[in-house]
Design goal:
It is a single chain. This protein is an alpha/beta fold. It contains 11 helices and 15 strands. It has helices spanning about 40-50, 105, 155-160, 160-175, 190-200, 215-220, 235-245, 260-270, 290-300, 310-320, 340-350, and strands spanning about 5-10, 15-20, 30-40, 65-70, 90-95, 135-140, 145-150, 180-185, 205-210, 225-230, 250-255, 270-280, 300-305, 335, 355-360. Strands 3, 4, 5, 6, 7, 14 and 15 form a 7-stranded mixed β-sheet that branches. Helix 4 crosses helix 5 and helix 4 (about 160-175) packs across helix 10 (about 310-320). The two termini are about 20 Å apart. The structure holds zinc ion (ZN) (2 copies). One zinc ion (ZN) binds next to helix 2.
Length: about 350
């Protein structure tokens, strides 16, 4: 009889259910992982609220996590980076697919592959069932990429590589962040802290801003050169604070990692004339009041780093291997079992914890 596994399903808004399905066998070119850890990230909270345009009730949950190879499909001997893989190896995978054929993929913009959601925005009832990471198993299709996690990298650290860390590797590359550049991260959540670390590794001068004193304190260990407490400060005061730590003109690069619409407006004030803004966190529909003329006259660049390309995940894993002094594992501060996934989400929504991890 086929082995049975458990997965999480979106019920009505705010509701998560656990369901059992037979664990699939991987087809040619596919892989099935046994999950080790799956994190609950900010976008999962949007999904559970019912705010995601594609993930509907009955669909599987989870996109962030790390697992071990459970079964390899016919022809799969190497990971997407060319390293040999075997059953039991720790692996991280892209949660989305890159089809290689759509206009975005052909144009080297696989991060916005038109078919990306085909790997995760699917009903649990549809085989192979295990489309999400918050599950005992995870099916990795032919159009997804996966990489062996380098030896010595902690499972807790690796669990966030396929979301936050790969995402900010992409943002840093897109902005052409250079040594000595001042870069401001708006928000000291998982994205902001990973961003600060990546910016420091690239030789830039990372600055971070948030309203939460504790998160700002934590940013020092990730390499923040300046941590700006924006709590209770007006926009003009915030602009002044940014200018004080960037030589008077504003940041060379501003990276929006808050998911708050007003941060987009503020980014236009924090960037120096001719500088670059990268939006990452704002992914749900919202509106902001901006001054397009002011932006044109400043002569800057505005870029969007949506998801990442598969090679950015490989880079993220190498960063974890080569920079073990950075406390990556501290980004996850609470462990739960799959049966307690409802509590994990409630605690995340209530901000009792920073990032919940479901441990299998
Ligand atoms: Zn995520
Ligand atoms: Zn594509």
């Amino acid at each position: 009889m086929a082995e049975t596994g458990e997965l999480t399903v979106l019920g009505g808004p705010g509701e998560v259910e656990v369901a059992s399905y037979p664990v699939p066998s991987p087809g040619p070119g596919e892989m099935v992982a046994r999950m080790v850890r799956a994190n609950i990230c900010g976008s999962d909270l949007h999904i559970v609220r019912g705010a995601h345009p594609m993930v509907k009730p009955g669909f599987t949950l989870g996109h962030e996590g790390v697992g071990r190879v459970h079964a390899l499909g016919e022809g799969v001997e190497l990971d997407s980076g060319g390293a040999a893989v075997a059953v039991g190896d720790l692996v991280a995978a892209t949660y989305f697919q890159t089809c290689g054929e759509c206009p975005a993929c052909v144009n080297e913009q696989s991060n916005i592959c038109y078919r990306a959601a085909g790997a995760y925005a699917r009903p649990a009832a549809e085989p192979p069932h295990f489309h999400g990471t918050i599950a005992t198993h995870w099916h990795i299709g032919r159009a997804q990429s996966f990489f062996r996690v380098p030896d010595g990298v902690d499972e807790r650290a690796a669990a966030g590589a396929n979301c936050a860390l790969a995402q900010v590797v992409h943002a840093a590359e897109l902005s052409e962040l250079a040594p000595g550049d001042t870069v401001l991260f708006q928000g000291a959540g998982g994205l902001g802290l990973c961003g600060v670390a990546v910016a420091g590794i690239r030789g830039a001068y990372p600055i971070i801003a948030d309203l939460d004193h504790e998160r700002l304190e934590a940013s020092r260990a990730f390499g923040a050169k300046a941590a700006l407490d924006f709590a209770g400060r007006s926009l003009d005061e915030r602009v002044q604070a940014v200018r004080e730590v960037t030589g008077g003109l504003g940041a060379d690069v501003v990276v929006e990692v808050t998911g708050v619409a007003s941060a987009f407006e503020e980014a236009l004030r924090f960037v120096r004339p001719g500088g670059t803004i990268v939006t990452v966190g704002n992914i749900t529909p919202s509106t902001a009041a901006i001054d397009p003329g002011g932006f044109t006259r400043a002569g800057g660049r505005l870029l969007a780093a949506y998801r990442y390309r598969p090679r950015h995940l490989a880079t993220a894993l190498r960063i974890l291997e080569r920079h073990p002094q950075i406390p990556w594992g501290s980004l996850v501060d609470a462990d739960y079992s799959i049966r307690d996934v409802g509590d994990a989400i409630a605690d995340s929504v209530a901000r009792k914890i920073t990032r919940a991890s479901i441990v299998f």
